[in-house]
Inverse folding.
């Protein structure tokens, strides 16, 4: 979802600007002091379910993280070409699965702003399974719940660790997004076929069962 269909510029702003600003104000720190305090705390849980959990960060930081997301929701937007791609997938009659690490509350905020979920047949949050997409247990749980054919599926993501986990599970077609934040320059993701935007995949949709992020 974030960095594949929705512009990661929102999340970068939220975690690198807004949260440090509010944390600094709450604790009487300068912005740079707040960033110095938060950076190792973020790094310590990166790639775990807590990293994506609004409830965890609200407790840890003493902030209403869900409220801050709602406050900043006007910044949430699709990446260029993402809606065109999603419409194309539906027109091809493919089963579509939104598979995200986003907390359900964060997903609700972004869906309300963009209407994203209307394009999907199935919406799954890793919080439903208690383990993030970076781990094999997530993919086993997803397989058990949805009974999809990995070899005939298309998966798109911007996280190398998630892409590696999808590959180990046997997903047939995997692509990395090289420009998850529209305000930053594209970058290659080593070891994976890359596209700058999901729109670039429209011509190759035949033969694949699903799409997830």
């Amino acid at each position: 979802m974030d960095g594949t269909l929705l512009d990661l510029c929102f999340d970068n702003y939220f975690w690198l600007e807004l949260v440090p600003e509010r944390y600094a104000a709450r604790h009487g720190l300068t912005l740079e002091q707040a960033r110095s305090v938060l950076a190792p705390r973020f790094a310590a849980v990166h790639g775990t379910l807590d990293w994506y959990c609004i409830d965890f960060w609200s407790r840890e930081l003493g902030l209403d993280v869900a409220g801050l997301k709602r406050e900043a929701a006007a910044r949430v937007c699709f990446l260029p070409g993402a809606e065109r791609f999603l419409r194309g997938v539906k027109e091809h009659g493919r089963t579509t699965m939104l598979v995200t690490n986003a907390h359900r509350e964060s997903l609700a905020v972004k869906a309300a702003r963009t209407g994203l979920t209307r394009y999907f047949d199935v919406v799954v949050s890793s919080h439903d399974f208690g383990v993030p997409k970076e781990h094999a247990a997530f993919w086993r749980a997803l397989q058990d719940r949805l009974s999809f054919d990995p070899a005939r599926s298309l998966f798109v993501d911007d996280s190398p660790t998630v892409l590696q986990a999808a590959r180990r599970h046997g997903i047939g077609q995997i692509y990395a997004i090289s420009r998850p934040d529209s305000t930053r320059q594209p970058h290659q993701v080593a070891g994976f076929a890359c596209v700058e935007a999901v729109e670039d995949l429209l011509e190759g949709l035949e033969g694949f069962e699903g799409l997830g992020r």
The first helix runs from residue 9 to 27.
